[in-house]
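Retro notes
What went well: the complex prediction finally ran end to end.
Inputs used:
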Amino acid sequence: MKKIEAIIRPHLLEGVKDSLQALGVQGMTISEVKGFGRQKGHTEVYRGSEYKVEFVPKVKVEVVVDDEIVEGVVESIVKTARTGKFGDGKIFVLPVEEAIRIRTGEHGLNAV
Amino acid sequence: MSKERIIGHGVSVLSTAMLAVLPAAAQTVEERLATAEAAIGNAQTAGDNAWMLVCSALVLMMTGPGLALFYGGLVRRKNVLATMMQSFIMMAVMTVLWALIGYSLSFAKGSPFIGGLDYLFLKGVGTAPSGYAATIPHLTFMVFQLMFAIITPALITGAFAERMKFSAMLLFCTLWAVVVYFPLAHMVWGDGGYLNAFLGGKIPALDFAGGTVVHISSGFSALVCAIYLGKRLGYPKMQMMPHNLVLSVIGACLLWVGWFGFNAGSAVAAGGLASNAFVTTHFGAASAALGWLLIEWIRLGKPTVLGGISGAVAGLVGITPAAGFVTPMSALLIGFIAGVVCFVAVTELKKRLGYDDSLDAFGVHGVGGFTGAILTGVFANSAVNTVFKDEAGNALPSGLLEGNGKQVLNQLLAALIAIVLGMVASWIILKVVDLLVGVRVSGENETLGLDVSQHGEEGYNLDFDYVSSATLSVPSNGSSVSAAANIVHE
């Protein structure tokens, strides 16, 4: 089992979600996040005072999947979330020790 | 009664009854005329009084919620309630002060510089009209003027927003009203006031609705406050963006609507002069919004919403002294000039001089008020409102464009008196308040925010917002991160 964390552009979430569902991913968690990498923020001007907004809004998608489909999922996210410009985001793959479905108490892959 | 005798006693009862039903038949022409005149007077009073009561309510709406929303949206979220409170509390404090001594010190007959004590505790102020307005109850005139006394100190709060103690703010505004506002209102509008063009002033300045009394006085006092209190912690390096411009847009639009009461109501009657002031007010605001946006677009690259609403307010300030003296076309010009001048004051002047006028009370009200006062002397037109008359009662020119160049000088002198009085008195009052209670909150409380430190409340208690507020308020320099994080745990 692996956890895939993808930080992507908010407006591309819909496409990423559809492509993951097509691969058989059953569920996902998303959150609205802010951060920066190579894409710098923008400048806002209020009555002539300039403010640098460094943290850019992004969406973080988290899914836990079987080792076998990790490659496919990552590829699919890269394909659907890419524009080719700074700010497309990052994908992190982490090992997952255990997963438990709270309702039934099932463990492992059955729980995700 | 001879009629009765002729007809005889039998029918005289009937005839008396008929006379009671048709009294007009028995009245003399003089009596009927008197009845008709009284009816006309009552009708005019009904019309004027209805209008003036509505105007009074409109002017109150400018402070709450108008100014409270306008200012509240411009501060950081940790100070939204405290900022709105500074406007709101004036609605209570000034009302009580006005009822007890304020109205008398402003409008009772007294010296040229301050009113007497005839109206102390509103003695003799009832439903009968006063010398100030012949067709409305004295009480209506009193309450209309009260609403001006409420908004004026509330305007100053924009200069010391986000860092002044609530107790100090209450003391300052109360003392300021007594030392600056009441005397100035008397000088400009009071019977025998030094600057009153209509009621025997030495310097006949034109101030239709309070450009000098309200905006110049509060704006220049605001500059003193900003300088005396010093900059907010972290200014100008730290991010201090307006936390909710949506509130500010609503507030500015309420100010715009309320301003009809402020300016058109200053005609103190529901006649043609009120219509002129209503139209010039509206035109001034519209034209100033465009003026500010245009220069902002050219100079800074984008036309901002904050720029648009700031421009509208600047135009409303600029047209205030002129509303009942100039034509609608002049109002378009005055508004445009006020919009551009205030933009320069807020963006350039503030940066050059380096003071922290948090919400630009000086840049908009001080500079806009001064600009409007001078332009009133330029554009005032005797066809709109006859101010000066010769011995025979014929109209004399009002403003510079009509040929009365001296009026610009009168306007300048009145403005300078307001500026000097406001600035000197404000500095002294701040010193006194500083000695008594201290004017500024501690650095810790300023970082925590005035909502929590002064009032023990927060503006937004939704859980999600609560967490994200801590995230958003993390400044770019690492040192303050821990301070912001502390707020979450407290």
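What we learned: Chain A has two helices and six strands.
What to try next: split runs per interface for comparison.
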